[in-house]
Structures are given as C-alpha cells and as structure tokens.
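Can you make up a polypeptide sequence alongside its tokenized fold?
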Amino acid sequence: MPEPVDSSPQTPDRGARWGVAAAIGAAVAASACCTVPLLLVSLGVGGAWVGSLTAFEPYRPLFVALAVGALGYVAWREWRAARLTASGSDAVGVDCDCEEDAVQPRTRRTILGAGALAAVLLLASPWLVRAASGPPTTAVLATDAPLATARVVLAVEDMTCASCDVTVERALLAVEGVDKAEVSFEPPRAVVSFDPTRATVADLMAATAAAGYPTAPATDA
C-alpha cells in the first residue's frame, strides 16, 4: 500500500523562507554599491570602508539575477505547497486541525510576501531614489554669487547607477561651509559653492572619495 502523501506545508515553507532570505541578501548586495552608501552618507557615516562599497558595482547584475532567481524559487515552492495541500485534501479528506490550517497558510504567505516585497524594493531602490530626488541637475556655473562665496567645478568618477549623483550631492552638502552642490551625469560634474574660510577644495574631494566617488578639479571647466 503506497504511503500517504504528506500534505503538510512545513517542508515547502522552510524552503520558501530560505529562498526569501537569499533574495533579500542578494538584493542588499545588489544595492550595496549605490543605495547603501547614500543611506550611510545621509546618516553622516563616512570612511574608507563606505567608499569601498562601490566596488560591488561590476557584480550588481549577478546579484540581481540571484535575487530574481530566489524569488522565482519561492513562487515555485508556494505553488507546489498549494498543489500538495489540495491533493492531500482530495485523497484523504480533511483530517487535521482546520482552524490551524486556515490561519497558517495566510500568515506564511503574508510573511513571505513581505520579504519578497522588501527584496524587490531593494533592487529598485536606485530608481526609487532618483524618482524621489527629481531629475539630475544640469551643472551650470552661476555668476551672481556674493564675493565671499567660492565655486569649484569637480570632475566626478565612478557614477554608474541612477542614484549616484544624489550620493555625491549629499556627501558635498555634509561638508561644513558648503552652501550648494549641483551634480550632473553628463558631463559627470559637481559644481560646488562654499565658504573658503570654512572649507577647502581638498575637503570637498575627501568627502566624495569617502562616499566612493573620487573627484578632482575639472580641467575643462
């Protein structure tokens, strides 16, 4: 006599939970090159280790693929769990605690859905940050500033994602004495207005380098 089919959702649930955890981990790694530095800079956290996070950029497509694959695996596990549960109910009837079964799948799917949503938001975070911050500014050197204000045009390196210019802008505005910073992708420039008695160009360059985006005075400004 064949053994009855185990219709318990525990095994698929365990696999789905691991899948969501893997998806979130891969999504965090995918956003480490852009969104994480922006968050840390916004919180006033800096240092060489923050700047080194941009080294993840070449691997971002791999992490995105891993996250998408893990989410697909979670969807397959949930589909399989639903099929097993339905098959078991049809074959042997309802012989379990119906109240527990009525609540558990809903709770499980809520938790898994929240985890999957978190992974998707992390993957989309560079574009969400860009949408929230508005279009990139056009770096135009103004000429109507007070004489006490100095301006410098910095060439910015390594801006590759949708929110990189926002990170550079936040890093510059965090420097004491900076009044305004306008960052553009094309050309990759930062136009900074600052009080020369409170900040120097070296301070500005150090701030962007600590965020992972080296700068230098533009030679063609």
Residues 5-12, 90-103, 138-147 have pLDDT under 50 and may be disordered. Strands lie at 150-156, 178-184, 189-194, 215-217. Residues 118 and 143 are 45 Å apart (CA to CA). The longest strand covers residues 150-156.
